[in-house]
Amino acid sequence: MAAPAPQAPAATSYTPFVTDFMRLVRVLYSPSAVFEEQQAKPTWFLPWLIIAILCVAIGFWELPYTQRVMELAIQAIPNAPQLSAEQLRTRAMFGLIATPIVFLILALINAGILYLAVSVTSARARYKGLLSISVFAQIMVPIALVLQGIILRMRGAPSDAVTSVADAQPALGLNVLFSADSVGKFLSAILAGIGPLPLWGLFITAVGIMHLEKVKKNAAWTAAVAAFVVMLLIGGALASLQRG
C-alpha cells in the first residue's frame, strides 16, 4: 500500500486589520515569523493605517502638552503674533493629523534607501517588501510616544512639565547624556535616535530584509545600518531647522 502523499502546510488565514494588528504586536518579539508569513504578498498600507490611528489617539492624549510646546515655539519667534488657546489647539490638531503622512513619507524614503543599499551588495529585493519592513519597524513610534506622554504627565501640568520646546521630547536615547544647548540641535537629534527603541527598530529591519526578501545576513545588516545612519542624518538636519 502506497504511503499517503505529504500534505502542504495550511496557508495562514488573513483577516484585514485584525491580522495586521496582531502582526504589529508580534513583530516586536518574533519578527522573523511575521515577515515569513508575508513572502508572497507583503503588506504595508493597513499596518501604516493602524500605526497612524495609534499615533493620532496618543496625540490627542498629549494635546495639552503639544499646545504648550507650540505656545513656547511661537514666543521664540521675534514679532510673531500671539495666538489664542483655541488657535493653538487648532494648529496642534492639524499637526497631529498631518503627522502620519510624514511617517509615510519617511517610510517611503527609508524603503528607497534600503533598496539602493541592497542593490549595492549585489542582492535583489522588492521595493514593496522593503516598504513593508520600513512600516512595520515604525511600531516603535507609538511606543515612544506613550513613554513620552507618561514622562510628561509625571512632571505635572503642561505649564510645569514644559518650560521650553526641548522639554516636550524627554530623552530616550544617548541625548540623555548631553543637553541640546551643549551639543546643538543637529547632534542632539542624532543622539536621540540612538537608543533602545530605535535600535530595536533597526533589528526588526535587518531581520525583515533577511526573511522577507531572502537577503543574506551580512548584506541585510549592511543595508539596514546604512539606512539607519542616513535617516539619523535627515532627522538631525530637520531638527537643526527648527526654532525655539
Percentage of residues in strands: under 5%
Q: What is Rg?
A: 21 Å
Which stretches are poorly predicted, pLDDT < 50 over at least 5 residues? 6-10
Helicity range:
55-70%
What can you tell me about this protein's structure?
The structure is a single chain. The protein has 244 residues and is mainly alpha-helical. The protein has one domain. Helices cover 68% and strands 0% of the residues. The chain has eleven helices and no strands. It has helices spanning 18-26, 31-36, 45-61, 63-75, 85-120, 127-137, 140-155, 158-161, 180-192, 196-212, 217-240. The longest helix has 36 residues, at 85-120. It is globular and about 55 Å long.
